[in-house]
Design goal:
2 domains; rod-shaped; mainly alpha
């Protein structure tokens, strides 16, 4: 019995050694796994920190770009206002040029409508005296038109568009021409 007990003890001792050997091997494997997992966690944490920093940088860039965009938009709005003002001035100048060309082309516009037609009819009629002279405003020149032009026009407007006849008998046909042309 002593031999069997000894054999059993040896077997137990051998099994204990195998268990211990296996436990050490398992511990080494577990430690290696644990170390690998820790390394991966640290690596991922580093990537995460880098991404968070990059995200913060991008958010700051977006904010700065938005501010710059607003500044440029305000600047563009101001430039558009200036452009519209200049376009209005150009249109006003074009209208003034057109009016000046029309007045240059027809210097009789200030004396009323159909004045050109009236003068043509006056030229085609036979008069008792000399041909009626008018409109009299054509023969009046102000020394300083910018200063006195408006005053003369407002005070003498009816006289400036009047006609003069040398024979009283020419008044009636001239008056009829005025009525025919809407004067």
């Amino acid at each position: 019995m002593n031999g069997s007990l000894e054999t059993t003890k040896n077997q137990i001792l051998e099994i204990d050694q195998q268990i211990e050997k296996e436990s050490r091997r398992m511990a080494q494997k577990t430690q290696a796994k644990h170390d690998e997992t820790q390394r991966k966690i640290e690596e991922e944490r580093g990537i995460s920190d880098h991404c968070e920093k990059r995200l913060a940088d991008i958010m700051m860039e977006i904010k700065n770009t938005g501010l710059e965009m607003d500044r440029i938009k305000e600047q563009g709005d101001e430039e558009e206002k200036k452009l519209r003002t200049l376009q209005d001035q150009i249109q006003h100048c074009d209208a003034m040029i057109k009016t000046a060309k029309e007045r240059e082309h027809d210097a009789l516009i200030p004396y009323g409508r159909n004045m050109k037609m009236l003068l043509e009819k006056i030229n085609n009629i036979r008069w008792f005296g000399e041909k009626p002279l008018g409109p009299l405003g054509q023969f009046v020149k102000a020394r300083d038109p910018a200063t006195w032009g408006d005053v003369l026009r407002s005070q003498l407007s009816s006289l400036l568009s009047a006609f003069a006849v040398t024979d009283a008998r020419d008044r009636t046909p001239l008056k009829k021409l005025f009525q025919d042309t809407g004067k």
